Amino acid sequence: MAPDMLFNLLLKALLQTLQMVAVSGIIGTLIGLPIGVFLATSGRGELFAAPAINRIVGLVINATRSTPFIILVVAIIPFTRFVTGTSIGTMAAIVPLTIATIPFIARLIEAAIREVDKGLIEAARAMGATPYQIVTKVLLAEARPGITLALTLTLVSLIGFSAMVGAVGGGGLGDLGIRYGYQRFMPDVMLAVVVVLIVLVQAVQSAGDNLARRFDKRSRRS
Amino acid sequence: MTGPTKTRASLSSTKTGIHPAESMVVFEGVTKHFPARDRDAGAFAALDGIDFAVARGSITGIIGRSGAGKSTLIRLVNGLERASAGKVSVDGVDVGALDEAGLRSLRRSVGMIFQHFNLLSSRTAFDNVALPLEIAGVDRQEVRKRVEPLLDLVGLSDKRDRYPAELSGGQKQRVGIARALATEPKLLLSDEATSALDPETTQSILELLRQINAELGLTVLLITHEMEVVKAITSNVAVIDRGLIVEHGRTFDVFTRPQHETTRALLSASLGAKLPEWIRSDLKALPLPGDRVLVRLIFFGETAFQPLTARLVTELGAEVNILAGAIDEIAGEPFGSLVVSYPADPDTLERARHFYQETGLATEVLGYGA
Question: Does residue B134 sit at the A interface (CB-CB below 8 Å)?
Fold first, then answer.
């Protein structure tokens, strides 16, 4: 394939991928973060103890997470059409991506918050903190490095998931690789797609690692 | 602070002999059960009827082995745990009767420090001390004005921008103390605050607590398993064992004349003359013919100033062997102990008993050996 044509295809696919990852990442975080906080604080005897609701939310999350992504994509087509008015294209692909991201983020955030030393919650309670203050001033602040890494992992996974939404005409790098590289036997396109994906994932991961390290004061020595 | 809603007379001072007005904290018939993990086992009683008062302005220690219930006891004071029965009051306020909002305002007048410091790793020393003020909704300028003198007080002005990971254990506990004092509490709870520190650092932290108690007139209630801590700074002590206060009183009295077996056991590990391990491990509870008895003689007050050891040798008319001796200080008063042995024949024992009775010397039989 001619280099300038390849470049144009790659650029378009990259932008589609970035759009899908960014939008579903942001919406997924906005919804997944509170759910993660809830999961980490609503067990028996915890801050917002609601063991029954905790179990139900946990079950729903597990169910969503155990559905293979490609099946989720087709299974929720009616919902997707309801939200975006269409079931094909990049915007339509964002819906299943977001739905798959929410439980993923929620579980990672839950794990990051559970890492926070229980003694800090006790100390904050002893200071007269409200449950809301404990979440904002203690749990989220202390879990910030872990949450940053969780979001980094989410973005990397989203880049991978977004390769599958070619099935509903979502476009993006994965779709480009399948349609040109595989179905039209163009190894140069396939190679270019793989290289761009590798660079993209590396960039996201290092940025996330750097940020998390900057937030982490637990082992800082002067 | 929620004011006392009931009159103080409603406290049953007759039953416990406690005068609420002089007490910062009062426990009355307090029990605490935890549901058993095993369904068949029944509830586990961490506290089993505690009657005890902490005098206003005192440094009071509660000592016991781990699992004795002391952590539960101190957590009842600021409502981190709720009593199953009985009543805990702080400065006349019934803690059990408070709702969540009431508890939060109570907690702002009760500081607490912890064994593992519990500082936020993401905040500097300054910001850690500022946290309780932020929580109480104090504005930024006021926070600044109050945090700086506190860092000064605990001697950490130069570390204000350091993170906990950059501080030593003692410095972390100093930050913890400054943080506990930020809301100007009237009571400071110390939960094994020196147990994770080395002996030297422990002494400096205890010195700081004593200084705070003296300068700010703050009542300090501390729990510990370390006799050294109680000995060094408390004026009053209570010994807790299996959910019960088995002994309490002035620290000096309890330490020099321990009545309960638990107190003795706790004391022998840390106080006064210690026997070498090879003698201790050979001690028997009952004498065989020809054995010698090992006795700890305890000197304090009047008996500390009389030549009693020399007289003991004369009175017994038997070989008296000195095995160990030490002079200690408890709550600022001198206290000596001496371990001696002499033949355990009925005659000598009778003469010894008579001698102790006459002189008022406190003794404790440690055991018998060859």
Answer: yes
